[in-house]
TrEMBL record:
It comes from the Bacteria. GO terms for molecular function: DNA binding; sigma factor activity. Residues 12-55 form the RNA polymerase sigma factor 70 region 1.1 domain. It comes from Bradyrhizobium stylosanthis. This is Sigma-70-like protein. InterPro entries: RNA_pol_sigma_70_r1_1, RNA_pol_sigma_70_r1_1_sf.
């Protein structure tokens, strides 16, 4: 999985609303490929870009 593509898509979503939701992130991430380390890296990448993650 190209996680940079997931981050890029999340950034695009966040530009529209100022945040992304957990549901949106779940739709972007293929669950069969997501390891806990991958999810943590994704959340860190979003945080580093000042993107908030909101409850659904």
């Amino acid at each position: 999985m190209d996680w940079s593509e997931v981050v890029r898509k999340a950034v695009i979503l966040a530009e529209k609303t100022g945040y992304v939701t957990f549901d949106q992130l779940n739709e972007l991430m293929p669950s069969d490929e997501a390891e806990p380390e991958d999810i943590e890296a994704l959340l860190t990448a979003l945080s580093d870009r000042d993107i908030r993650i909101e409850e659904d």
